[in-house]
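#onboarding

Welcome to the new folks! Below is a worked example of what a typical request in this channel looks like: someone posts a single protein sequence, and someone else replies with the predicted structure as tokens. Don't worry about understanding the tokens yet, we'll cover that in week two.

Example request:
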Amino acid sequence: MVGVGDTSGKIPPEITRQATEKCAQLTPLEATHIYAILKQTLEKLALVGVITVDPKVQAHELTQSVGEEISRMIAEQKKLEGRFEELVAMQHVLRHQPNKTKLMENQNELQKVAEALRQSTKQLCRNLKDNPNVAENMLKVASERQALQLLLSGCLNEIEVFGKLQPLLESVMAQEAAEQAMEETIEREKNTTAAVRQLRNDLREEKLDHEEKMKEKKKGLVSLKEQLKTLKMDTAVSTRYLSKDLTASNEHERRLQRTQLEDLLKELGLVQQQIDIEKAVHATQAEFLRQIASKMQEDSVSWASRHDEDLAAREKELEMLKQQHARDLLELKKAEEKFKMEQALKRERELKAAEERERVEFEEMREARRVQAAIIIQAWWRGYRVRKALAGGGKKTKKAAKKKKKGPYCVVDISIHSMILPVRYYLPLDLKGDP
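Example response:
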């Protein structure tokens, strides 16, 4: 904590700036009055510095008074601790009683005793911390007095020169800032103490709950031990019973297994006989198969040689066939050429024969047409003669007949079946009628 006249610490620049802004100029009367007061104060401080006190006598008196106070507080604290232990012990008993009123009274009194014990411990610690050391206290007082004298001297110089009290104002503002910081520190310490107190209460409650749980667990452990003992007895009885039961069942199983073993041995004998028979049969079959294999090997060699011989013969025959095939191809080509020539000649002959047949048929047809035309002409001519006779024509003279013969003629083209035949007949025209 900074004293009123403590100038050993460096004043912050912010405080110096604020002091400069707040410091006002003093009037001559105010400056004279303050100067006189401060001057008188410096003279009294100088007088106090001259006065000396024996440090041993002061230390003895202070130690005696403080020792009596500390002894009294320690005795009171021991009583509170004893009472606290009694209440805690009673609380464990009261928890198991049906009446909870006494338990609540016990808890209230326990809280009061704990608070008193806490305050007593705090006061004892404070007294122990404040136990004076005379030499150090005297040095501290002397240093604070010197600092105050320096501050007041500086103020006197400031008043004489500038007419202001800036050093004093700076010291006061620094003291206020230090006190405010101290108050904040104390407030934080109080909060921390309260949190620690709450944590201690929580810890105590947790311890109590833990003790309760441990007691319950111990009771449960006793119950479990009883159960374990009962189970061990039951297990021993069951084990003896099971041992006898298992012995009987094992004996029964052993007899059954012995019977099964005898049956299996009989079956094994039969199986062994079957195996011997199978081995003999197998040996016979193996010998037979070896003979077969030897014979088949010989047949294989024989067939291989025959295969080689047949292959050589077939290759020779194939070569001959190839040569024959080549000759046949040449003959085939010649035969094809000859066949083509014969076909060409045959076609020419057939064409000529067809033309000849067509010519003969045409001639026959033309001859038939000529005959038919002659028949038609003759028919016409007879008709003409008949008509002429019927018309009354008698005999004519040869001259008239000649003239008649020399009369006009018409050329008639006889067409049969729409075909124009190259045959022409000259028929005499009758001027009086149709021919």
